[in-house]
């Protein structure tokens, strides 16, 4: 299935090559929509392919998108794209991943010796030290529902941190059903293994999330999703707030995982339970503070660590008034 | 087209059928049932179209100007002289209450009032929300028997009540006991507005004081006070001193060649002063900005005075000699880590940037204003007279506000070592 999708991707590139026609392949239009607000592409096996995708997307998004993807090929040089080549690269890439997985399994969890993993007290999960780190993230805004917010992600000027910037606009889309709007988000991609198998993060030995950021005084929301195959649970996540101080100084934010509250479809649930850390699929940052205007957030790295002083298991008690069944 | 008509007809029929069943259940006389069914048939199209508008749209603040006046909108138009404040809003709500004893159309009125609240500037006022809830007739919508309690009793009214509470939640207004009393009086204990109220009581209190960098709810209107607040907000050092270098003066109409004098407010901590005194005069320091800072819904722009990061060979580590204090050593080189599992450091090199010497918020973002700031700084920092100051200003703040990220991105952060993107760069050796 995954390979089929990849192949469709390949044909998509081929189609994009001579002339972009919007209504040519309706079955693929969802991919375009998917990429619409994202500034970055999946790290394809062939860098050329990736940059070409970026190029085509720059056409979709207007010229600002081109600014985000700096490593564009010049319009004169035509990247050679061939169907067989795409398949070959995909297959090679997947077998490489399979080999890595087998070798890593032989060495230990995550490809490191067991004792090292077990004794680890602090771990950097995401860092931003190069363009390839940005490929692990997706940015999205309410443009996908017809709003006007814009968000872009790029490397900072010193090439050592990620800069998430854009404009928030809470103007509701004129589609007749949406009453409110205005969000921008940055979501980490779900890590994929051999044959697009979903992989997860296991943070069960840590208890605190650590972020080194610099913002402009706006409040953000940190959302963590658990890995699940149930379609009913796909909108469930655990959230907490991240308040930026503003100003020129870097800020270290520590959020204990016990503070994260449970929500479904954007509504806080009555029955709360704590975040289970053994299968984390992604993390996201959302800005929706109803204040129109430009914003930025700079992220140095995101890590998890064990705070021995923090013993709280879960910060929110259930209310007998709201969920009496729990108290029977 | 015909299938659409058929669908409408079917829908109307089912409505009529539902009315029929409902009426039959209630044991109404048969003639009434027939009339109901007929009416269902006749108003099918109208029912369908009004169905859409009946769905209570959540309180919309920015609604397109509608040509036709909505019902009860004239109440809000009455205010003479265009004054739109709490008093006129309360007067409009009271007018509605006096119009009719039966409060006909109160749901529409409440939705309209919710949309109008921002216009009148009362969206954060708890008393006004209580007044709005008071518009509901009391004791009418309370379920009286098991069956009414089992199903949603008066759903439109309950949704309207929830919409009022939702708007309160959006603006961070905590309901009080009067709200609770009103809701029990109107809808009863077991109703959706009461459920919403309980949830609000639970969650709003949990998150009320969660911000570690609190900003006052009502920001000072004076830009100088706002600038002081913003500088204090940004500076983590509590011993830092805020200085007003220049108060804002409007341009004098008598002498038009004198431009308006913008305000300049700066902040500097003693540590920063000491660092600036130690700074090597051979290396320039930079005035950078403007960068944005959001205080609730207001945006102020600040500038910083900073130097580049020293190359590692020039950094001199400050050695504290052991002889300073024999009894209380200032420095201890003890190995505290017990073994490998005690290592709680992140395995990463954090982004390092040059030191920041001062920050300022000025009314204008041009170089002349900032040069005045530097001159003011020289009084407390004599070393600044020997150090060359380079202005790296990225456009004016007005552009930043209107650009919406298309023309030029919001100013990238000042951490660059490479400087090829600096738009204006003027060397200004002082002293």
TrEMBL record, chain A:
Location within or outside the cell: Mitochondrion
GO MF entry, a single one: unfolded protein binding
Swiss-Prot/TrEMBL GO biological process terms: chaperone-mediated protein complex assembly; mitochondrial electron transport, NADH to ubiquinone; mitochondrial respiratory chain complex I assembly
Signal peptide stretch: none
Gene3D superfamilies: Galactose-binding lectin
Assigned keywords, A-Z: Chaperone, Mitochondrion
Domain NADH:ubiquinone oxidoreductase intermediate-associated protein, residue spans: 126-299
Domain of life: Eukaryota
Keyword Acyltransferase annotated: no
Region of interest (Disordered), ranges: 42-80
The protein, known as: Complex I intermediate-associated protein 30, mitochondrial
Similarity annotation: Belongs to the CIA30 family.
Subunit relationships: Part of the mitochondrial complex I assembly/MCIA complex that comprises at least the core subunits TMEM126B, NDUFAF1, ECSIT and ACAD9 and complement subunits such as COA1 and TMEM186. Interacts with ECSIT. Interacts with ACAD9. At early stages of complex I assembly, it is found in intermediate subcomplexes that contain different subunits including NDUFB6, NDUFA6, NDUFA9, NDUFS3, NDUFS7, ND1, ND2 and ND3. Interacts with TMEM70 and TMEM242.
One Pfam entry name: CIA30
GO CC entries: cytosol; mitochondrion
Function (record text): As part of the MCIA complex, involved in the assembly of the mitochondrial complex I.
From TrEMBL, chain B:
Molecular-function GO term, any one: molecular adaptor activity
Pfam families in the cross-refs: ECSIT_C, ECSIT_N
Keywords from the UniProt entry: Cytoplasm, Immunity, Innate immunity, Mitochondrion, Nucleus, Signal, Transit peptide
Location(s) in or outside the cell: Cytoplasm; Mitochondrion; Nucleus
GO cellular component terms given for this protein: cytosol; mitochondrion; nucleoplasm
Example GO biological process: regulation of protein complex stability
Signal peptide (residue range): 1-18
Location of region: Disordered: 400-431
SMART domains: ECSIT_Cterm
Sequence ranges assigned to domain ECSIT C-terminal in this UniProt record: 269-394
The keyword Mitochondrion is assigned to this record: yes
Function: As part of the MCIA complex, involved in the assembly of the mitochondrial complex I.
Record family assignment: Belongs to the ECSIT family.
PANTHER family, per database record: ECSIT EVOLUTIONARILY CONSERVED SIGNALING INTERMEDIATE IN TOLL PATHWAYS (PTHR13113), EVOLUTIONARILY CONSERVED SIGNALING INTERMEDIATE IN TOLL PATHWAY, MITOCHONDRIAL (PTHR13113:SF1)
Oligomer and partners: Interacts with MAP3K1, SMAD4 and TRAF6. Interacts with SMAD1 only after BMP4-treatment. Part of the mitochondrial complex I assembly/MCIA complex that comprises at least the core subunits TMEM126B, NDUFAF1, ECSIT and ACAD9 and complement subunits such as COA1 and TMEM186. Interacts with NDUFAF1. Interacts with ACAD9. Interacts with TRIM59. Interacts with TMEM70 and TMEM242. Interacts (when ubiquitinated) with NF-kappa-B subunits RELA and NFKB1. Interacts with RIGI, IFIT1 and MAVS; these interactions promote RLR-mediated type I IFN induction.
Protein's recorded name: Evolutionarily conserved signaling intermediate in Toll pathway, mitochondrial
Gene of this entry: ECSIT
């Amino acid at each position: 299935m995954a390979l089929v999708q990849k192949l469709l991707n390949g044909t998509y590139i081929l189609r994009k090559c001579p002339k972009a026609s919007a209504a040519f392949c309706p079955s693929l239009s969802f991919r375009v929509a998917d990429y619409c607000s994202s500034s970055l592409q999946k790290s394809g096996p062939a860098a050329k392919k990736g940059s070409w995708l970026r190029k085509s997307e720059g056409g979709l998004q207007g010229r600002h998108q081109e600014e985000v993807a700096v490593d564009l090929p010049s319009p004169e040089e035509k990247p050679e794209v061939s169907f067989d080549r795409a398949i070959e690269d995909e297959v090679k890439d997947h077998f490489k991943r399979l080999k890595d997985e087998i070798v890593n399994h032989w060495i230990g969890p995550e490809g490191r010796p067991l004792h090292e993993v077990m004794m680890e007290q602090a771990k950097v999960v995401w860092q931003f030290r190069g363009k390839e780190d940005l490929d692990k993230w997706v940015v999205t805004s309410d443009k996908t529902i017809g709003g006007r917010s814009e968000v872009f992600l790029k490397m900072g000027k010193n090439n050592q941190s990620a800069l998430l910037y854009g404009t928030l606009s809470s103007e509701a889309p004129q589609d007749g059903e949406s009453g409110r709007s205005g969000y921008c988000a940055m979501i980490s991609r779900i890590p994929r293994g051999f044959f697009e198998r979903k992989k997860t993060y296991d943070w069960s030995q840590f208890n605190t999330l650590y972020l080194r950021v610099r913002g402009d005084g706006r409040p953000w929301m940190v959302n963590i999703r658990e890995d699940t195959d149930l379609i009913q649970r796909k909108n469930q996540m655990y959230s907490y707030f991240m308040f930026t101080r503003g100003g020129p100084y870097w800020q270290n934010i520590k959020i204990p995982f016990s503070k994260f509250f449970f929500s479904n479809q954007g509504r806080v649930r009555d029955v709360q339970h704590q975040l289970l850390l053994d299968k984390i699929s992604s993390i996201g940052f959302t800005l929706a503070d109803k204040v129109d205007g430009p914003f930025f957030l700079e992220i140095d790295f995101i890590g998890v660590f064990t705070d021995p002083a923090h013993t709280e298991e879960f910060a929110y008690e259930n209310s007998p008034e709201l969920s009496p069944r729990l108290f029977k | 087209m015909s299938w659409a008509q058929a669908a409408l007809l079917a829908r109307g029929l089912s409505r009529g059928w539902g009315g029929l069943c409902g009426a039959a259940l209630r044991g109404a006389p048969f003639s009434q049932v027939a009339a109901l069914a007929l009416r269902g048939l006749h108003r099918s199209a109208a029912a369908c179209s009004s169905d859409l508008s009946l769905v209570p749209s959540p309180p919309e603040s920015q609604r397109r100007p509608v040509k036709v006046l909505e019902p009860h909108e004239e109440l809000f138009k009455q205010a003479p002289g265009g004054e739109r404040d709490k008093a006129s809003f309360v007067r409009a709500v009271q007018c509605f209450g006096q119009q009719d004893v039966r409060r006909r159309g109160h749901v529409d009125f409440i939705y309209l009032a919710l949309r109008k609240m921002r216009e009148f500037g009362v969206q954060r006022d708890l008393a006004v929300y209580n007044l709005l809830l008071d518009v509901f007739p009391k004791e009418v919508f309370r379920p009286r028997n098991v069956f009414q309690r089992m199903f949603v009793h008066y759903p439109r009214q309950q949704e309207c009540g929830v919409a009022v509470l939702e708007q309160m939640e959006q603006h961070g207004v905590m309901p009080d006991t009067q709200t609770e009393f009103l809701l029990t009086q109107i809808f009863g204990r077991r109703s959706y507005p009461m459920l919403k109220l309980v949830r609000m009581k639970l969650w709003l209190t949990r998150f009320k004081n969660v911000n570690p960098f609190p900003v006052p709810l009502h920001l000072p209107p004076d830009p100088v006070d706002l600038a002081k607040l913003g500088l204090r907000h940004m500076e983590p050092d509590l011993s830092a001193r805020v200085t007003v270098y220049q108060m804002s003066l409007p341009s004098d109409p008598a002498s038009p060649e004198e431009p308006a004098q913008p305000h300049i407010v700066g902040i500097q901590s003693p540590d920063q002063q000491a660092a600036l005194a130690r700074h090597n005069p051979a290396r320039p320091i930079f005035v950078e900005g403007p960068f944005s800072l959001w205080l609730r819904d207001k945006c102020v722009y600040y500038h910083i005075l900073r130097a580049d990061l020293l190359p590692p060979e020039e950094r001199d580590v400050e050695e504290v000699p052991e002889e300073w204090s024999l009894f209380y050593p200032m420095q201890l080189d003890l190995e505290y880590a017990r073994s490998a599992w005690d290592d709680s450091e992140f395995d990463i090199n954090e982004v390092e940037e040059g030191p920041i010497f001062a920050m300022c918020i000025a009314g204008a973002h041009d170089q002349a204003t900032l040069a005045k700031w530097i001159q003011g700084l020289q009084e407390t920092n004599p070393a600044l007279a020997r150090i060359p100051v380079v202005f790296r200003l990225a456009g004016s703040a007005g552009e930043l506000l209107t650009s919406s990220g298309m023309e030029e991105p919001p100013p990238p952060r000042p951490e660059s070592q490479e400087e090829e993107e600096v738009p204006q760069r003027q060397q200004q050796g002082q002293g």
